[in-house]
Design brief:
Layout lengths: L1 H13 L9 H18 L3 H10 L14 H12 L4 H13 L14 H12 L3 H14 L17 H6 L4 H7 L11 H25 L4
Helix pairs in contact: 1-3, 2-3, 2-6, 3-5, 3-6, 4-5, 5-6, 6-10, 7-9
């Protein structure tokens, strides 16, 4: 528990003042979801907890796309805490391979611990919280909420996704509505069903209000 508490302290310090869709509370939800999935699916609990807590310690989207900062911070911190090298390597592997934008580059045979943390992170991107986070980030980026003439860009490459400044509503089709079918574990898939349907209901209501239809 001492290691986990020190990790929590580090994350809170590093993410202080961060955009609220990627702040400590996002990390806390992913951590709790990861533990819930772990209880049903198994896996190395320590690796899962550390990866869940540290997965957004330096999100590249807030560091000019630099994907190396997180690895450096995590390696240095866990080494200082005298965590064994095998555990450090497993945590780093998860952090480097779990993101949506890197899904086509990740190895095909993923360890259970990565699948669990990835599922937890993706679950936090859908449902009511997912909707709130999406509009919050769209506002942070000053993106349009919706434009009837701007169509979603499907099947984007990693570089296209990173540079995308499309509308917030389009992001549902470019990412959020895809996540249900990209989940790994039975437990996560069960949780996702309701959250996915909630997003569909939200979009239906959104279009009705936008078009002033009854």
């Amino acid at each position: 528990m001492e290691l986990i508490n020190k990790t929590i302290d580090l994350v809170k310090e590093k993410l202080e003042g961060t955009e609220s869709g990627h702040d400590w509370f996002h990390i806390e939800r992913v951590w709790k979801l990861s533990l819930h999935i772990h209880e049903k699916e198994g896996g190395d609990k320590l690796v899962i907890e550390l990866a869940a807590l540290l997965h957004d310690i330096a999100d590249p989207k807030f560091h000019n796309g630099d994907e190396t900062i997180a690895t450096k911070i995590v390696t240095e911190f866990l080494t200082e805490q005298k965590v064994d090298q095998e555990t450090i390597d497993k945590v780093i592997f998860i952090i480097e391979n779990m993101s949506f934008k890197n899904r086509n580059d990740a190895p095909k045979d993923l360890p259970l611990e990565l699948k669990i943390v990835q599922d937890a992170d993706r679950l936090d991107a859908i449902g009511a919280i997912g909707i709130a986070r999406t509009f919050n980030f769209g506002g942070y980026k000053n993106n349009l909420m919706y434009h009837p003439e701007i169509q979603p860009k499907l099947a984007q490459s990693k570089e296209e996704y990173k540079k995308s400044n499309g509308t917030t509503i389009n992001h549902f089709y470019e990412k959020l509505l895809l996540l249900k079918d990209l989940l790994n574990t039975k437990t996560a898939k069960e949780i996702a069903e309701h959250r996915h349907q909630f997003m569909l209901q939200f979009l239906d209501e959104f279009y009705k209000e936008w078009n002033v239809t009854f």
